[in-house]
């Protein structure tokens, strides 16, 4: 299931520039590392069975009640929990192309995909396209389904307006997924959370395993929320650099990019496959991109790019130009 995702650094040697993961990689985590070093003693005891202290902090930050929050071991953990808890609904709709785990989780629990499916899965901002639906569009979609699950893992990577937890909990059939992994650029910690009406959270909590969040992740989560900062210090400048990178790639004959409202976007290469380009960039230039051909609805020519520093972005453009020139 998790095979074929981005950030597969383990497959290559000497990767110097990683465009494959959508997570911002310029964050200074030294303060968090120092804090966790001072808290290593917590591994001697069991953590809280339900991460209640972190849920209270998230609820206070979001302007909702603690019984409208459920902390999970990353957003993927939440996806499988929801699919399990509502498996008797039997049908689902997945707005493609999008994150593969919705499809995989629904397959594991026996759902059939239909346009009028009881559960509807939406990634917003969407991975891999970077497109965003407005809150009114999300509400309209919710009106067409028994339950709408909105994965807002990339909510801190866009300036587009999104549905807030306080707005969502007023709707009886909307679940929001949030990723602390992406908000704070700490993918190794596996932290996420669900916000939804109390009745939905109660149903999910009733099927969730105890001690799902280990003691160090819980300590990290509380420290990060308490700091009140996200991973990206200057989001407007970062998104402006995304548009500069898109413009440079669009200027290369044989490359097309799609519009985006996030820090990542889809590209297509005409004269080769994305896999061929990926292997060339990785082995010849130490640059890693995301082969997007395994997203449902995309082709072998699609790849995804996540914006890095201006210097790294310039290097990527130059390397792609060199690859295409070699083919001529």
- Outline type: globular
The gyration radius over C-alpha positions equals 20 Å
Largest sheet report: 7 strands, mixed
Distance between the termini: 38 Å
Structural class based on helices, strands and sheet pairing: alpha/beta
Give the ordered list of helices and strands.
Answer: EHHEHEHEEHEHEHEHHHEEHEEEH
**pLDDT < 50 runs, ≥5 residues:** none
- Give, in spatial order, the strands making up the sheet with the most strands: 2-8-7-6-5-3-4
The proportion of strand residues reads: 15-25%
Question: DSSP helix count?
Answer: 12
Helical residue percent band = 25-40%
Q: Could you list some keywords that capture this structure?
A:
alpha/beta; 4-stranded antiparallel β-sheet; 12 helices; 13 strands; 38% helix
Structure notes:
The protein is α/β, with parallel strands linked by helices and 328 residues long. Helices cover 38% and strands 15% of the residues. It is built from twelve helices and 13 strands. The chain has helices spanning 30-38, 52-62, 75-85, 100-108, 135-142, 165-168, 180-183, 198-206, 215-227, 235-250, 274-285, 310-327, and strands spanning 17-18, 69-72, 91-94, 112-113, 119-123, 147-151, 174-179, 192-195, 255-257, 264-269, 287-288, 290-291, 302-306. The protein has a seven-stranded mixed beta sheet, with helices on both faces. A four-stranded antiparallel beta sheet has the order 9-10-13-12, with helices on one face. Strand 6 (147-151), helix 6 and strand 7 (174-179) form a beta-alpha-beta unit. It is globular and about 60 Å long. The chain starts with 16 loop residues before the first strand and ends with a helix. The mean pLDDT is 96.
